[in-house]
Amino acid sequence: MQRALFPALFAAGVTFLLTCLVIGVKLEQVGSELTVTGADPATWGWIATAVVIVFLVQLFQSPLGTLRRRLPAIEAHGLLPGHRLREQLRPWLIALVIVGLCVWPFMVSRGAVDLATLTLIYVMLGLGLNIVVGFAGLLDLGYVAFYAVGAYTYALLSEYFGLSFWVCLPLAGLLAATFGCILGFPVLRLRGDYLAIVTLGFGEIIRILLNNWTNVTGGPNGIGGIDKPTLFGLEFSRRASDGGETFHQYFGIEYVSSHKVIFLYLVAVLLVLLTLYVINRVQRMPIGRAWEALREDEIACRSLGLNPTVIKLSAFTMGAAFAGFAGCFFAARQGFISPESFTFIESAIILAIVVLGGMGSQLGIIMAAIAMTILPELAREFQEYRMLMFGGVMVLMMLWRPQGLLPMKRPHLELKNP
Amino acid sequence: MSETSLYVLQQLINGLTIGSTYALIAIGYTMVYGIIGMINFAHGEVYMIGSYTTFIAIIGLLTLGVSSLPIVLLLALITAIVIASTYGYAIERVAYRPLRGGPRLIPLITAIGMSIFLQNYIRLAQGSRDMAMPALVTGGIQFGDPAVFEVSISWMQMIIWGVTLVSMTALALFISRSRLGRACRACAQDLKMTNLLGIDTNRIIALTFIIGAALAAVAGVLLSLYYGTINPYIGFMAGLKAFTAAVLGGIGSIPGAMLGGLILGVTEALTAAFFPSEYKDVVAFGLLVLILLFRPTGLLGKPEVEKV
């Protein structure tokens, strides 16, 4: 206890210094004058509490540590049924989930379906980024750039050339992939953290260009009035546009506005299922194996005759393509896009989804995407603190469980002790 | 001299001013990278916190009735350095030290989390609006033909050059002459071996974070006085620019960071002179990409040997 006293005092002092001027004093702009006022006593009370807590925690750190070590570790995989049973159940489970996904929107409110659509966009983005970060181990901090490329592809093509969503969807993916390839080619020779910063810079460049190329992209005002997707040419609006036909007219039913929301949701489900299918197939192909091998040991890969640039580039391009699809869908759902939607924080959120879920683990990423979009909605009154908690959780999560919530399990054999 | 050349001269002066502050922030990146090989992404936020403490200290002192300007500025500088260094230390202690020795991506992710956290922490504590302060140091010298183009150097710009020069010299002396500086250099060469020789490497690493944060705080004081406005989001761009400067000069090399900062500042100012000023960020990142492509080790960096 005595030995812990000095570090504890030191930690308390540091805490005091961290909080006293920044929280305990408030800068205020009154007209053109700046004033400084002390915060109210309640805030100082909080500061004092924080200092005391830090002091006590540091003082009793070693007893607390032994206590924590006695607690059993959480093992999420232990909760799942056995391997053989799981293999048998898998097709049924997948079918059940798909049917459930298609049926439930007809039973809940419009807002819930809309939120689910948003979640699915993030699932798609998370799965796409997972190829780059989780499989290939390349840290991409500018992923949102490809998302923006996809969104603007659809918005611009639909505004200037009147192309429909279904024509633009592959085009958006293709264009984003091309961008990924062009951007990736020079930078992928760089080592991990350089790559992170260069991709971050690219993300910013794309945003700045979108913001300033006013006569094409509309600058900060964005592009509005983007067409919604149609079902084989049937529109989901109240009245058909020139030469078009609406869904409710064709089937001779009453117009219900939630049909549009549900249709968008089903399109998102379709896209996510497609993404999952493609990624799962590619992962088992030689190129998918090569991604993971490269992440584990680049030098060993090279000595086995694999070309690191081509492999990294393929991961980068493929990740970008999925971001393009997601962006195209995002533009269609939103009906309005502006550079505001494609800031760095968006990249950070997608990265957080991948990291929190457990890099490389698709189920984990889906869970994390759901948590990241639904929790802020539930905690509406904490809206102010949302980003603060977000940053804090990102740090704590990495300290507590660097491998993520549901880390990827590689197929492996284990020799049991005789 | 013609109008254009005078205009370019003026932009050069402005560029050197901004460049020297980039150099100050860049040193924090380069020292940390040199020793533990990680990018301290939250470094830009330390600069932002330094700017806020400067404003708080200056306004606070003026409210308290301290009227002598040099004393106010000096006290503000000291306050900013103390608070920002504490933040630098705390960030290292909380977010990076427990992860040392793990995979390289993990500390980078905590750094991003830390950066978001600090940004929003200041936003909640001090509000997200711009704070503006009237210029405290005014005036300067003008030269050139008033009929053609008048080049001006403000006193504030000279203060920035002077303070940067003094800080850089102090740092160079500290690193090359003192015992702790020698320990820093030893750590940069071989962390494990230094530890074996009985130097507490954790303390040296904490020290680099503190030095980096202190220099970022100096930059915070200078830039917040120069621009006169601050908001919680200034750290992000400044950090990115400073990192670009560090890479430009060769990350891990302290003279490289100084050179890189100056080059970046001048390039930006010259870009802003001939193109719309929004594009200066694009040019900065473009420069980063070009440097990494053609000289991945930067201008003064040593090539890294890959070991199996």
TrEMBL record, chain A:
Cellular component terms (Gene Ontology): plasma membrane
UniProt-listed Pfam families: BPD_transp_2 (PF02653), DUF3382 (PF11862)
Molecular-function GO terms, alphabetical: branched-chain amino acid transmembrane transporter activity
Residue ranges occupied by any High-affinity branched-chain amino acid transport system permease LivHM N-terminal domain in the UniProt entry: 4-104
Transmembrane segments: 43-60, 92-109, 138-157, 163-185, 261-279, 313-336, 348-375, 387-403
The entry's keywords: Cell membrane, Membrane, Transmembrane, Transmembrane helix
Topology with respect to the bilayer: Multi-pass membrane protein
Principal subcellular localisation of the protein: membrane
Location of the protein in the cell: Cell inner membrane
Name of the protein described by the UniProt record: L-leucine ABC transporter membrane protein /L-isoleucine ABC transporter membrane protein /L-valine ABC transporter membrane protein
Annotated organism of origin: Marinobacterium halophilum
